[in-house]
Structures are given as C-alpha cells and as structure tokens.
Here is the input.
Amino acid sequence: MALEKIDFVLAGVGGQGTILASDILVEVGLEAGYDVKKSEVHGMAQRGGGVESQVRWGEKVYSATVEKGEVDFLLGFEMLEVARWIDFLKPGGDVIVNRYRIPPPPVNMGVAKYPDESEIQRLLLTRAGRLVWVGATDVARELGNAALSGVVLLGVLASDLGMEHDLWLGVIERLVPERFVALNREAFSRGTAIGAEMLV
Amino acid sequence: MKDILSGNEAMARGAWEAGVRFAAAYPGTPSTEILENIRNYEDIESQWSPNEKVATEVALGASIAGARSLAVMKHVGVNVAADPLFTASYTGVNGGFVMITADDPAMHSSQNEQDNRNYARFAKVPLLEPSDSQEAKDMLKLAFELSEEFDTPVLFRTTTRISHSKTMVELGERPALEPLTVLEKDVPKYTMLPGFAKLKHPKVEQRILDLAQRAETLDVNRIEMGDPSVGIVTSGVVYQYAREAFPGASFLKLGMTYPLPQAMIEEFRSKVEHLYVVEELDPFLEDIIRLMGVKVDGGKDVFPITGELDPGSVARLLTAAGAPGADADLLAEPGPGVEGLPMRPPTLCPGCSHRGVFTVLSRLKVFVSGDIGCYTLGAMAPFGAMHACVCMGASIGMAHGISKVTDAQGQIKNQSVAVIGDSTFFHSGITGLMDTVWNQGASTTIILDNRTTAMTGGQENPGTGKALSGQPAAEVDIPKLVEALGVKRIAYMDPYDLTETEEVIKRELAVPEPSVIIAQAPCVLQFKIMNDPWTVDSELCTGCKRCLRVGCIALSLLEGEGEEDTLVEIDPVQCNGCGVCAQMCRFDAILPPVPVEA
Here is the structure.
C-alpha cells in the first residue's frame, strides 16, 4: 500500500529549537519507511527573525518545499509565527501551538500591537480542523530548560499521528547529546500525555 | 550506506569522494556550510580566503600543481572571482578545478538575484546543476572528471533550495591518492601573454563544441518519457517542482546546462506535442534552445523572470498556458497571506556592539555609506542610519565619491561616513581606502571590528588570529595596515559609550583629511559574552520611549491602565547588560545590575 503524503511546517523564532525538532521529525519519517525531504531557510535567523522548517513525508517526495494550502500539520513554537503560516495549512488540518509569545521589534517599539490570543485563535480556526493549545514552554521550564519545548510539542504530535512512541524515543536518543536524553524523554512523554488528554 | 544530507553537506561529501585535495572559500549564504563541512575531512586541505577572487586563485594554483581543487562562494562572490575564472578558462587545469556558485533566487539573504548560469556561457566553461543532495554529491565527482578530460574549469551551480534542503544520499568512498611530487612547468599553457592566449582562444571555442557533443551521452542529461502531449525541459530544483506538478508528463532533465545537447533536445522536441522550458530567473535554457531553431511553446512568456518557482506555481502557470495533466491538488489558487500581523524583521542582537554606533549616526543625520554584514541592519527602524549599501567593500569608495563632489562645491562638506566591518574591510575595503588617501579625499571611515565574520555565523578572518579550524594564525593589524595606506588620522572609540562615540565621530568629520575610526568590540553572539541584565525603575520611568531608539528587543513597552502608565520594561532573559539604553534615559530610570557581594 502506498504511504500517504504528510507535510509538516514548524514555525518559531531563532533559538527556539525548531531545527532540532525538524531533524527528529525527518528521522522518525525515515524509520517509519517514508521518503523524506526537509527544507529551511536560514541566514538571518540568529538575529531574532522568524524560523520555519518544512518536512515532507511520502511514498516519493519531489519538492522539499511545501505548498500553500497543502500542509497537514502546523507546529507553532510561538503564537505569532504560527498565525503567519496558517495559510499553508490545508483546510481541516491540525495545528499544535505553544502558548508562548515573543514580541517582535515593532511591538517592543510600540508601533504595532501583538494580537490577542483570541485573535490568533480566530485566525488559526479559519483553516484548522483541530487546534491544540499547549503550554509547552511552561512544561519545559518546569523540567528546567525552555529549549525542551520543541520535544514537548513533538510528543503532542506523536499522539496526534498515532504512531508508536518507541520509534520517536529511539530517534530522540540518537539525536540528543547523552546527558540530555533523560530530560528529553521526560519532555516527550509529558507531550504525549497532553496529547492523549486533548486529542480524544 | 545512506544518510540524509543537506545539499551543502552532500557537496562537501562529494568533494571528499572525488579525491579533492584542496578547497578555499569566502563565507556567504547559502554557500557557507560547504566549506564548514569540508573542514571535517582531514585529508582535504581547506581554508577561508580573504575574498572569492583569492579563493579562486589559490584553488587554481593547487590545480596547476596537480591537485583536484575547489573554490566555493555565493553568487555575488563570482563577480569578485570573475577575473581569474575567465582566464583560467584559457589556461585550463592540471588537477580538476571546480567553482561552486550558490545562487539565491528570491534573495533570502542577498543583495541581488543574478543568475550565474550566464557566467558559464560568458566564461566558456561547462555548467552542472544538481537537483537534490544525491546529485549534488555525484555530479561534483562528474565535474572533476569533465574538468580533467576537457582541460577546463567547471562551474557547479546550486541554489538556496538545494543547499539548504535535506534529502537521502547513498554514500561512497574516497579513492587512495598518490602524493604529488612533480611540479611541471608549461609556459604556453599557464602564462597568458597575448601571444599564448591567442593560441588558446580557438581551443576554448573548440572545447565548448566538444563538450556539447559529450553532453549528448552524459547520463545526467536524460529524457524521461511520459505523456507525449506535454514535454518539459528543466534543471536544478525546478525539476522537482515540475515533476510534482505534472507527474505524468515527459521530461528532458538536464544535469549539464551548458553547453546543451542539441541532438537530444531535437529528439525530445520530435517526441512531444508541446515543449515548455521551466526555469527560475533568466531564460537561460530557453534562449539557447530557441537559438537552435527548436520551437518552444512556453518559457518566460509563461513563468516570471524574478523570484522562485514552486510546484503550485508551475502547475497553475503551465495549466493556464494550455498544458494538461497537472496535479489537481496544486491547481487551487492559494488564499491570500495572513495580513495585519506585526512583522518580525531581523535585528541587532541585544548587547551588539553596532547598536551604539547606529544610535549616534542616526542622531548626527550624516549620510552613511554602508556595507555588507550584520551592521546593514543599521538601515532598519529605528535607526534608518544607512543610506546606501551595494556590495562587499563598496562603502569606502562610495563615501569618497560622495565627498569628492559635494565637498568641491562646498555644499555638504564632511557629511558622509563609510561604515564597514572587519571581515568586509579585509575582503575589499582596503583598496577603497587606498583610493581615498591617494586621491586626496576627506571622508571618514568607521571600521566596526567585532573580531569575526558575524553575519554568516562567525567565521574567522585575517584579523582574528585564527584560521578556518581555529588554529593559530598571523593576525592582520588594522591600525598598522591603515597607517601603511597613508591614513594619518586613526581614532578609536568604545561603541558602548555613546558620548565618546558621538565626540569621536563629530571630531573626525570636521577634519578635512581622510580619517579612520576603529570601534573594536567582540561580537557578543560569536564569543558568547553574557552580562547581567539591567532593570527599569518603574518609579523613575516616565514612558518617554527615548530608550526605544536603540532598537533592542530586550526593551518593550508595558501597557498600563491609563495612557501615562505606559512604561518600558527590560526582559531579563534577552538583556545582555550593555547599558546603551541607559545612556539614552534622561531620568536615570535604567539601573545596572547590583553586584553580588563576595
């Protein structure tokens, strides 16, 4: 049976760990038997710009970049950045969003306003079939490191995808430095628990 | 063994598998990671060069000495390196010699969108274009074989989407290499006096004809027949887009895109009903194919000449041109982008040493002739303190030109400064300063010496005292260099001290001779410099927003109940304790961290 195409976009801000999360997603896809491609544009991200990573799973993937309106899963590391990418989601697609805001410079300078959570929710629901808010950064901070938020979100995604957790944990153990493995496992299982609760 | 590699990682691997012994580059997005990965192969001698021209020349020297050698750069770097490239086309090579050009359609991180495929035709050298990481690795090996077989430099073109996408690669091994012991001399081959060059030019022309013959049988050029009603000629990443957009169509997939295989193109034309050329940027393939007398049913009349394509745009535009068979999912016109959200432009990092300089320049209202680096962000709000930026090293020459014509008329005397970083100064700013001194200019040059090549991720440069892999190296002394160029006034300023920065710039502007101001402060990001955060005393803050003029993301407005309650706060996680914002405050409301008692 041909494998279904699954497109992911991970959107956040430089330094939030979107790249590691997308690398994990790439490896999980490969282990699950998909052809996988990944695309990202870096360059100025270190200077506080938005970061986005695109991952595509499929029987055979040609383009490494996703199409507007075709994305199956949108993972938001930051509320404003996920809203910016909502037009890439296919109607009825899933959005998993970290309830966390990093004000951009125009907001800091008082020349623009950060949208309210209700406004972001409204924007996301223009396309999302399923919208899951996750306090991933809060959970990560409880575990002692805000950078774990990406793995918390992946835990939620793993629940949503209904894939075997051991597959993910194996990849995480492979990609994460040894001394952080236990923390990352914990972050992942916190994410899967949140997912199990919210996605029934 | 298989691995998932970015295009840049794959090219590094390809260089290793091809038996490359020497590689040189100047960093530039999207090419930087190629050399950064080559560095990890100990059996390749690799180095950053001060600029792309030098990188090309040292790589050419290594080729003359018999080594397979590689020069790597972004697209605009080839402009700098064009001089040696064009004549290396005449000398030919000994060990294979390949130049990688990393083009940036859509200008994700570049000042222009030039299509470097044109260089292949201009310099009369063959051009290869991979369309994924596997091809990036394998075709680099082919590039070296062609270079040696046809005695020519080879241009190898990647684009941002190839360089920065990860796809599966089947890995190979590196052949065992014999040491190079004999340095052969061949005056007519490598010494391009007119008499020798005249003998070479006809050979160069014949070489392109021979390569065109060879293109007919190279397996990187191939016809993939499907539905004969739609024939698509394409190359590079666009092949992937077109494959996805028209899964059933017929394709002529070109891996070598100069010179082109005329017989294969004519054969393909005869097999398909309609022929479309699908390519980003210039009509490079299309023009050559039309000149062959081959009928093209759609090219740049269908596709834009600017920006990137993607599967959706290929599907929609070609369908509108009458081609059947597009993937139906891709045909829906994408909805409008989300509007009204605040932008998130890149900004100077908290603690960045450039912030103070641009805060002052913004206040002084001078014309700032700028250059390429993180400090180009000085053009953005709230500074608006960069008024021209063209290419690497241009700031100093442009400031001199401005000062020449305005000072002569006594109009805007000394109202312009050049601002340039250390790496960019070494790259191509030195000759501009030499010109300023030599031709009795009066302009002021500010060298922002942050001890690294920050914009591309913190590479070493000739002034850092370290080479590519961090090994100790000779360190160019900027003041001594500037002095040797004939500059008599060299000033120093602490860019974190706004009063001193303003005094020094004003003083040097007023002097009717060339002067150089050196602001030396290491990059906080690269050197991981962390200072304790400052705080705002909410009793003293009046909400006047003057501190926001330093454009720091650690500062933000805290909305209060009433209008007058709007205060500034400092995010302790973002703040790097540089204290520049505190110097803007007229109410002493921004307080330094309290030292912890020992």
Q: What stands out?
A: Residues 48 and 145 of chain A are 19 Å apart (CA to CA). The longest strand of chain A covers residues 89-98. The two ends of chain A are 27 Å apart (CA to CA).
